[in-house]
């Protein structure tokens, strides 16, 4: 009798193992490429999904610019319409809405800041003006003090932070630039690596945050002093006095914004390369004061980068897992929280995030705008949804690369695209 029981138990265990293996084999991969990007597709990547380092070969798959196909328009969910808002720009990058609804654009390569006012009946800007010129690769834009009546507009150049006098409605700077931070880090005048810098103020206006990406893929700051005050979010006073490193281990915190529902600082981050197609996830997350996010020794889930020593176990023990893990090598850049009233109510408060696209993946991925649901309370549960796709041709040619996002005064969504030198406008027409 005992022998029959042992046989039955063995058969049961074998069946259980088989079913578990079969389920694991049939479970769809959370990773994807451009051929699978489609508006409305919901995605979620977790720590448990991450493969081992070097599980696949790393690729040099840079996006050779392709001509925009005749009549090509990015694809949006049903009920939404996409049009060209403005075009003819030289590297249009960050977009930031002023309190009165004017939208500012950093035209990075040209060293200029543009302003757009209003939306005509055919979806074009009513007024376009050049606010400032002569800047050094500007990217970040912020209004100070926060609220309805700012007195200054701050610009984060690649090497410094400057500000111009500003009153609501100004279309041109009314005075010369003042230098607030002359050199964000040693050698910033001749930077290597990531060149975008962003600037944001705390809701009460007492703190100024400056985001600085790393100078490398994984150079160890212990032995490479060129990484000093890089891969960090730095905290200053509004007049430029350095206070502290607010958060660290963030390889390239491209853009920042304050979540209007929670008052928390959020950032979008490009993680490291050359560990395989599906490592390491890029991410967007709220940022904790004093938080450590892994770079360069560790990455998401307390995993050690095998190319570096396990030299900071104290940091590894308190590494923070980001709120939303994104397909690796997607290159998230600009984002905005939807505060308009044109889109359906379920979109209110959600994040729209631009994915600039990959170089270290084959097949390529990214090149779209995604929606991050925040469920009305400003909190994410890890999912994101394809929203604006179609910037890649069927044979892999890249014709558009989303960068910046802002909510226009009429509630439409503006998306800068440095592939076509354009700004797209997404409006809701109803289903």
What would you note in describing this structure?
- This protein has two helices and 27 strands.
- By secondary structure, the protein is mainly β.
- It has a five-stranded antiparallel beta sheet, with no helix packed on it. Strands 2-27-26-25 form a four-stranded antiparallel beta sheet, with no helix packed on it.
What is the CATH homologous superfamily assignment?
Answer: TolB, C-terminal domain
What is the topology, as strand order, of the major beta sheet?
A: 1-24-23-22-21
Instruction: Average the pLDDT over all residues and give the rounded result.
Output: 94
Taking the sheet with the most strands, its summary is: 5 strands, antiparallel
Q: Tell me the Rg in angstroms.
A: 23 Å
Strand content: 25-35%
Second rung of CATH, namely the architecture: 6 Propeller
H-E order? HEEEEEEEEEEEEEEEEEEEHEEEEEEEE
How would you describe the shape?
A: globular
Low-pLDDT residue spans: 7-25
Total of helices: 2
Quaternary organisation of the protein chains: single chain
Count of domains: 1
Q: Kindly report the CATH topology.
A: Neuraminidase
Q: How many beta-strand segments? A: 27
The CATH C-level class name: Mainly Beta
Helix content: under 10%
Termini distance? 67 Å
